[in-house]
Backbone:
């Protein structure tokens, strides 16, 4: 709880970064690249968390392991996503949990191409993330995908490679697990790390 309290306090000090501030990143996979624009202006905690994992090389050797297709999803609130995990798995405690940045507060929605943080309860996200392939409001605050109704933390958008993401989503799977996971060779930053990240996660600097 101390980690969450400290992060919340740091985020409160920098609650209003310029909304246009974004960071470019490239997910390099064994089937091609996916280019992201990460919205540090509206979702600074989630974005800076993702950046610290990338800078630490903890997505090197990661993989897309899960696919969910709404047409075959038995959940009453179906979704279309692919999900990634580090080499330690989707429940990797990693660098510790972060506060949930609700879409109610960030103004970001789960549209086709959105990147978002996987989680269990609120304030439990660590390293696992997912990419939405179709507009999926069930993942937003007030949506029904998670029983608590708090939604998930959207923090950026695919700007190149959404077709590749959709191709991965259509790969053979058993119980939502890709038969052949897609390797992430690395995630490389295409922009400098914003100063706000040092205030939120000073230990990463």
Residues:
């Amino acid at each position: 709880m101390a980690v969450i309290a400290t992060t919340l306090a740091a985020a409160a000090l920098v609650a209003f970064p310029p909304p246009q501030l974004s960071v470019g990143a490239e997910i390099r996979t064994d089937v091609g690249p996916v280019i992201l624009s990460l919205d540090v202006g509206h979702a600074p905690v989630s974005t800076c968390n993702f950046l610290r994992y990338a800078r630490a090389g903890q997505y090197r050797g990661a993989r897309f392991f899960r696919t969910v297709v709404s047409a075959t999803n038995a959940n009453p609130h179906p979704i279309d996503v692919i999900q990634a995990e580090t080499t330690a798995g989707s429940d990797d405690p990693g660098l510790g949990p972060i506060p949930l940045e609700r879409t109610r507060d960030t103004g970001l929605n789960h549209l086709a191409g959105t990147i978002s943080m996987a989680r269990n309860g609120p304030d439990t996200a660590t390293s696992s993330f997912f990419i939405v392939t179709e507009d999926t409001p069930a993942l937003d605050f007030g949506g029904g995908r998670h029983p608590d109704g708090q939604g998930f933390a959207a923090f950026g958008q695919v700007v190149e490679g959404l077709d590749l993401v959709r191709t991965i989503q259509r790969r053979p799977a058993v119980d939502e697990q890709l038969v052949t996971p897609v390797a992430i060779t690395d995630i490389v930053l295409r922009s400098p790390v914003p100063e706000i990240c040092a205030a939120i996660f000073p230990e990463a600097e």
In short: Residues 1-17 have pLDDT under 50 and may be disordered. The radius of gyration is 16 Å.
